[in-house]
Amino acid sequence: MLLRKRLGCLHAHHSNIEYIEQAFQNNERVELVHFVDPGLIQQVSKGTDGLAFKVKEQLEWMESCDMDAILITCTNYIALLEEEQLELSIPIIKIDVPLFETLCEEKQSQTILFTNPETIEGTMNRLQQYALLHEKSIKTKVKVIDKTFELIIQGKKDAYNNAIIQDLHDVAREQQHIAVAQLSMVEAARQFEKESTLTITHPLKSLVKFVMRSIE
Questions:
Q1: DSSP-assigned beta bridge partners for residue 8
Q2: What CA–CA distance (Å, rounded) separates 110 from 195?
Q3: 20 to 30 A from 118, CA-CA: which of 51, 96, 149, 175?
Q4: Which of 183, 2, 25, 4 shows the shortest CA–CA distance to 93?
Q5: Torsion angle of alpha carbons 51, 57, 58, 63, nearest 10°?
């Protein structure tokens, strides 16, 4: 009998669940268990005091639910964790690490798109640290798609995706190497790929392989 690993997924918004479900839909070795805490994102805009401890508590709670590993899908949560010392007995997988791996393999200049400005500083700091640790040289330009993230928070998914796709078309006129940094941007990136000849780097492209390496 195949022993399945229980992967606890911590999301800041319920819309991220379907992306992870799709990524692992043909993987019989992993059982996904989803945890959603949208309140934390609302608090980040007011300041981060005490929020790192809140994320730490959430992860400890998830570990107590008999998880074999935890996947954090929110870049805000990941950035907050840099402030806390974790002492969990199971692997903590940060969704942007496989993205960093891919970004660091690219030799040309890249544009990285965000919709949530609150995630930019933490994500880019971690990318630079990753590149330094792995002795990689990367050239990146950051662009935020203004007044877009609130659309997904409000459940206006089609409007959110359309705004991202339009911006991808604009960026693609000047840049051939493009990445989207957030999980919520994946669907729009995939739609854009179907409409164009460009490949968009996004957090799901190498996630499954990375997760399986981490929990084996």
A1: 33, 70
A2: 20
A3: 175
A4: 183
A5: 150
Is the domain spanning 5-95+205-215 CATH 3.40.30.10? The answer is no
| Token duo for residue 98 | 């496989």
Residue 161: both structure tokens together: 């995706």
Which of the 8 DSSP states describes residue 179?
Answer: E
For the segment 197-210, what is each residue's pLDDT rounded down to a tens digit? Answer: 899 999 998 899 89
Paired strand residues for 112? 142, 179
Supply 124's token pair: 């880019």
Give the containing element (helix H, strand E) for 8. strand 5-11
Q: What is the model's pLDDT at position 120?
A: 92
* Share above pLDDT 70 across residues of the chain, in percent, rounded to a whole number: 94
Matching fold, domains 5-95+205-215 and 97-201: yes
Give the closest residue to 113 by CA, choosing from 138, 136, 146, 81.
Answer: 146
% of the chain beyond a pLDDT of 90:
66
For the domain 97-201, what is the CATH code? Answer: 3.40.50.1860
Nearest Cα to 102, choosing from 82, 130, 77, 122? 130
**Hey, what are 25's tokens?**
């839909």
Confidence bin at 181 (pLDDT 50/70/90): very high
pTM of the model: 0.85
- Please determine, for residue 173, whether its predicted confidence score (pLDDT) is greater than 60: yes
Amino acid at 193: E
Mean pLDDT, range 57-85, rounded to an integer: 86
